[in-house]
UniProtKB/TrEMBL annotation:
The keyword Flavoprotein applies. It holds the Pfam family GMC_oxred_N. Belongs to the GMC oxidoreductase family. Residues 82-105, 255-269 form the Glucose-methanol-choline oxidoreductase N-terminal domain. Keywords: FAD, Flavoprotein. This is Choline dehydrogenase-like flavoprotein. GO terms for molecular function: flavin adenine dinucleotide binding; oxidoreductase activity, acting on CH-OH group of donors. The lineage of its organism: Bacteria, Pseudomonadati, Pseudomonadota, Alphaproteobacteria, Hyphomicrobiales. It comes from the Bacteria. It comes from Rhodopseudomonas faecalis. PANTHER family: CHOLINE DEHYDROGENASE, MITOCHONDRIAL, GLUCOSE-METHANOL-CHOLINE GMC OXIDOREDUCTASE. Its cofactor is FAD.
Length: 535
């Protein structure tokens, strides 16, 4: 079996699956895909409800934690990331959101030619197989299935009624011409099952394409170089230390935490920091691991005995068991829940040009990422700030490639973010205090005694965390000393090496980051194929 390929893709997450799947469509191009986790095809991954088992635990999950957060009273932020084929698309809430067109036009305005909304829209459409929407903004022939939620939960209508009572507009499609409004989310599901990036791009062709080799349980330890050209990777699989070689390129798709970690372990990063860990400096690139961004998020939660909500009570658990039949027969019902079935995008001030906050309305009470359980049922509403000013970092804990990186999202590190979250709190509370939603509430778990702005600031410092959207640590840029990759996603100062994942985003997009990560993989594959044709 050959150990040399045209391309080696490190990381089988959302972007990695897309780029590996697309490149291997050409039988003349050989691709190796390395994934640290397993195959990602178990019932845990396929059953949407099972995200409640994976997100809080180490099941298919790297289970990272941050350093203590100054803006959060020194609290440590929990950082779940997918560890299986499909990456975080195998454990996430499956929400299909692209972000606002302004976000991509902003990237282009920073000098990133080819990344405007008009440039990236074709790749969103190419990836998408939407069961409902078509036309100018949607595709219906791509590998990534997108559908409406299929829980048939009566709380949807109550949520929409609350939106009307709060005088927020109703939005049917958050990925169309306009984004502002509240409504029901679409999800990456098909027939009620999770449709991860691996199910879209890799599982259908594993073992069928002779030019695609997929290695699971393979932890990449470093990139191999000849001078300043990437020629392969070293990885550990079980007790074996192995090497694969790349004729053309090594592609890092290990995500916003581990792509910069692997660059640093391989001698690419800020020289002083690398030397402090005893690592030889191949190339001084100070932006590696900098510019970390994530959406700061606050959760309202309420106890409710309505049978539409889930939780840890005997009646709720009985409802889950009773729903197994309809799930197997029809792909509908409670087991298809993504726990964040409704939501939307709002402006905290009418003078804003675009929405600055996002809501996720959940069918369960959520506390500490689901790691704290209450013997009751209820519902939640997340509110996150879409474009925070705070910037964090990812650094090495040690030169040991198996050690988790030092993650510092710097949540609420900028005073403006705290004040923007105060406005976000007030805007969301307006929705939660409508007659429609008040009628469901038996007990306000966190905010009953929060009245003044100082009360709000205190509860935010005490309870804000992130909402699983880390980006930016290998930022794309031009004429920017902190840029790590150029608009072709090639690492500056190095040949034969690209980064293809959410770490290349120069700024955080206004929405969930899974669909954009897949888009990045699609676009990267296209750029690479075009270069191959030219050569």
């Amino acid at each position: 079996m050959s150990d040399t390929f045209d391309f080696i893709v490190v990381g089988g997450g959302s972007a990695g699956c897309a780029v590996a799947g697309r490149l291997s469509e050409d039988p003349a191009t050989s691709v190796a895909l390395l994934e640290a986790g397993g195959r990602g095809d178990s019932w845990l991954v396929k059953t949407p409800y099972a995200l409640s088992l994976m997100v809080p635990s180490k099941l298919n999950n790297w289970h990272f934690e941050s350093v203590p957060q100054r803006g959060l009273n020194g609290r440590i932020s929990y950082q779940p990331r997918g560890k299986t084929l499909g990456g975080s698309s195998a454990i996430n809430a499956m929400i299909y959101i692209r972000g606002h067109k302004w976000d991509y036009d902003h990237w282009a305005s920073l000098g990133n030619t080819g990344w405007s909304y008009a440039d990236v829209l074709p790749y969103f459409k190419r990836s998408e197989n939407n069961a409902v929407f078509n036309g100018e903004y949607h595709g219906q022939s791509g590998p990534l299935h997108v559908s409406n939620v299929s829980t048939d939960n009566p709380s949807h209508d109550i949520y929409l009624q609350a939106a009307r009572e709060a005088q927020f507009r109703i939005r049917e499609d958050f990925n169309g011409e306009e984004q502002e409004g509240l409504g029901l989310y679409q999800v990456t599901q098909h027939n009620g099952e999770r449709w991860s990036a691996a199910r879209a791009y890799i599982h259908p062709v594993m073992g069928k394409r002779a030019n695609l080799r997929v290695e699971t349980k393979a932890i990449t330890t470093r990139i191999l170089f000849q001078g300043k050209r990437a020629i392969g990777v070293e990885f550990r699989q079980g007790d074996q230390l192995r090497k694969l070689f790349a004729r053309r390129e090594v592609i890092l798709s290990a995500g916003a935490f581990q792509s910069p970690q692997l660059l640093m372990l391989s001698g690419i990063g800020e020289a002083t920091m690398l030397a402090a860990h005893g690592l030889p400096v191949l190339h001084h690139l100070p932006g590696v691991g900098q510019n970390l961004q994530d959406h700061p998020d606050f959760i309202f939660a309420y106890q409710s005995d309505k049978p539409w909500f889930t939780g840890f009570s005997l009646p709720a658990l009985m409802r889950v068991l009773l729903s197994i039949g309809s799930y197997r027969r029809e792909g509908r019902g409670q087991l298809t829940t993504n726990f964040a079935e409704c939501g939307g995008f709002l402006k905290t001030r009418p003078d804003l040009d675009i929405p600055d906050i996002q809501l996720h309305f959940g069918t369960a009470m959520v506390e500490d990422h689901g790691r704290k359980r209450r013997l009751a049922t209820g519902f939640s509403c997340h509110v996150c700030l879409l474009r925070p000013k705070s910037r964090g970092s990812v650094a090495l804990r040690s030169a040991d490639p198996t050690a988790a990186p030092l993650i510092d999202p710097n949540l609420l590190g900028e005073a403006d973010d705290l004040e923007s979250m105060v406005a976000a709190f007030k805007t969301t509370r307006r929705l939660m205090e409508t007659p429609a939603l008040r009628a469901l509430q038996q007990k306000d778990l966190f905010t009953a005694d929060v009245n003044t702005d100082d009360d709000i600031r205190a509860i935010l410092r005490a309870r804000v965390d992130h909402v699983y959207h880390p980006v930016g640590t290998c930022k794309m840029g031009v004429n920017d000393e902190m840029a790590v990759v150029d608009p072709k996603l090639k690492v500056y100062g190095i040949n034969g090496l690209r980064v293809v994942d959410a770490s290349v985003m120069p700024t955080l997009i206004g929405g969930n980051t899974n669909a954009p990560a897949i888009m990045i993989g699609e676009k990267a594959a296209d750029m690479i194929r075009n270069e191959l044709r030219m050569n």
